[in-house]
Amino acid sequence: MDDDEGDRFSDAIRLLLLIAAVSDPLNEAEQQAAPKDAVAVLRAEGRLQKLDFWLRNPDYLADELLNDYEREREKEAINLELAGDILDSDEPEICAIPMLRYLFGAFEYIDQAMSILAAPRLVVVVPRRTAKRVLQDNYYLTAKGRDLAERATEQFPVLAWYTERARLVRALAEATGHSALALRKRQYLQRDYAETPLNEVIPSIADRARARLARLRAEAEQGDAA
Length: 226
Known about the structure:
The chain contains 12 helices and 6 strands.
């Protein structure tokens, strides 16, 4: 297996675990129109790309948790702890998979990785289209795909990490709004992200996020002492 092929399989596994964690269960009416054996769906590639950015960039995920913490410190105190779990470790360095910034934000071609999932029907990609163009791709997780994601998470600790972080990504998305547009707007509020030139790698913010974490912890300790 060459490096490119290995990367495609790694991408496919990550995307399967992400889709399994963030997709929405189908209700009875949706199941009637869904592909056979589908159990959940993630709608729109744009949304998938934005969620994948947070999964691939733990420093940005942690900084967004700190944003939520600062908005409501008492209610969102758990987010300070969750951000600390990420930033106190070397996750931002060893787990980062950088992405390029395109016109509509972080993006990477995923067709080859998705074809690996589609061939055994772990995920079924269904385009919603007009007569002239595709409006969006919907990603249907099948029972087979869900079962494989669950087994992989149970058997391989490194893959369990992806599932744990994908659940954080889902919670962050739910607090932001489910549309790709809402997620894109939030990500563009990050200065380093927004100022990255087109077609260049979005830089790490790990150092800045760690400094911010230290400041917020100090403020929290002062508040507790008072």
